[in-house]
Amino acid sequence: MLNVDRSLTLEEIDLSSLDFWLLPLSVREGALETLRKTNPVAHFDDPAWMLLSEDEGGFWVVTRHADAMAVSRDPKVFSSAKGAVSIPDLPQEFIEFFGSMISTDDPRHGRLRRVVSRAFTPKRLAHIEDRIETLAHDLVGEASNNKEVDFVSKVAAELPLRIICEMMGVPNEKAHFVLERSNTILGALDPEYVSPETDIDEAILKAAIDLVSLMEEIGEDRIGSPLDDVTSALVNASVDGEVLSASELASFFILLVVAGNETTRNAISWGMVALNENPGQRQLLRSNLNELLPFAVEEIVRWSSPVIFMRRTTTKPTTTLGVRLSEGEKVLLLYGSANRDEDIFEDPYAFRVNRVDNRHLGFGGYGPHFCLGAHLARRELGALFTEVMNQIPNYEVVGEPDRLRSNFINGIKHLHIRTEA
Ligand code: HEM
Questions:
Q1: Number of domains making up the chain
Q2: Global pTM?
Q3: What is the CATH number of the domain that holds 355?
Q4: Which of 62, 178, 363 has most ligand 1 atoms within 8 Å of CB, for mutation?
């Protein structure tokens, strides 16, 4: 059970500041609780560190579960087309490049989602399931050969990376090339990934261009002679006779590799921390693994909430959230806060591997953009924690998790564990 620290006053809570997201978890959770209870749709100024060329009017933050669901399910009023993954407005070319369908509305979103859904068929996922289990077994086995390892780099990052690369047809020797680019795109504000002397926009753009060149290399071979991978399905896909444009293909590739890498890794890492801090829950899971695993996986996603926010922009004036919003206002959905909402979750700060009623929003608020990779992520988490329970059940976390500096991904860069306690 987390000891929540509610000492920050409403005036002291500043979600515009990057440092807010690096506060001790107890303080951060306490501040979000204060917002949920006293100012659940709060307004914040534009982040000063973002060096915006003009005043963009700040942004609203939605912290309650019910409000996050209501916004997610009303895309006509709360649009994704102005960018879902960034607080500042980005130039349209940037949105297209990085956002793909995540930053579109219907009818374009529906059309794009149908194409990718075809590439993520149950058949293709069934085929990859054995592979996920084997890889999880081998990675945890290799880690267990060392007394102490950085679990993130050796296991938590490797499993989703290798799986998404295999699904996309990326050769094994290019996997780390992909990981480095994906870290740059979502971890650019952290000096470990992009040095403070480097221009951040340039670094992100360069990483994206590298990924696109890789996709073009792979895609060229697949046109007309498809293999059983997602890239083949994408380059040969057509919806109503219309094929994907080169830029749609490029942005899909970026979205899938980045989304596939940067989220599951952090759910795994926070899951390791949670089981370490809750030995009774670890024991319970171990003794009823088959029965409790699906519940434990959902609880790990709720607990970790790897995606901090998605953004929407109002298309017209609305009072849906109980405050008056004009057209063009930015609204951030804080999934981690919704996942601690005391109106929905009993003992929200308790990590329980047998939580049955778990309507968490870790994969989104059940609107049209609900995570396309949720099934894949669940499989990866299930396979990984099965192996942890079987091969290193007594592991111990050494020191504190080294957290990512980001207001978008709730990440852990390094997590040292002793494999035999
Ligand atoms: C624990 C792991 C994961 C978490 C917590 C997560 C979370 C999310 C969230 C919060 C959204 C936005 C939902 C919304 O706006 O309503 C999303 C969208 C998306 N996710 Fe995931 N995700 C995970 C794993 C994956 C994986 C493995 C993939 C596969 C490659 C993936 C692919 C996507 C895609 C393509 C979208 C955009 C869907 C759309 O716009 O229609 N995700 N994810």
A1: 1
A2: 0.95
A3: 1.10.630.10
A4: 363
